[in-house]
Structures are given as structure tokens and as C-alpha cells.
Amino acid sequence: TKTSQVSLYIGLASYKIGVEDKWSGGGKAEWQSDAAILSRMVTESRQLNSYKGFALFRYDSMWKPSASVKARVNSEKESLIRLCMDK
Known about the structure:
two-stranded parallel sheet
């Protein structure tokens, strides 16, 4: 059933940034190769009528990333911040 009364908040899996997603089949390297995957997800989600915002899971993956993905996370964070500032 479709309804316009449901507020949709998209959950973004920021903990996947820079790592292989072994569960996604052909897209397993997407989190490693796409430099602005979170921004793309937000941009696409904003096209939905019921979109109200997004949430990051896990918060610490964005602000306390491991050294092996820190540069990628910082790039993602900058891209996401720019997108949110342009809203």
C-alpha cells in the first residue's frame, strides 16, 4: 500500500566506506571505488516524495575511522557536507 503520510529517513552504512562489501555480489568494490557514495545515495533519496532525511550508521565510522580508510572517509565526509550545505 502506498501512503504519503510516512516519513522516510534513509540509513547510510558509513561503516562500509573503503572496504569490500562481500555480500553485494557484483558491487562488492563499490564502497572502495566510489569517492562520493553517500552523497549519491542522499541525492537519489531526495527524489522520493516521502524523503525526510538520513542517518549515519555507525557515527564513529565517520568521526573516528581506522587509519586504513581515513582518507576515503574524509573525502566522503567533505562531499556529504557540501551536499547538505547546498540544500
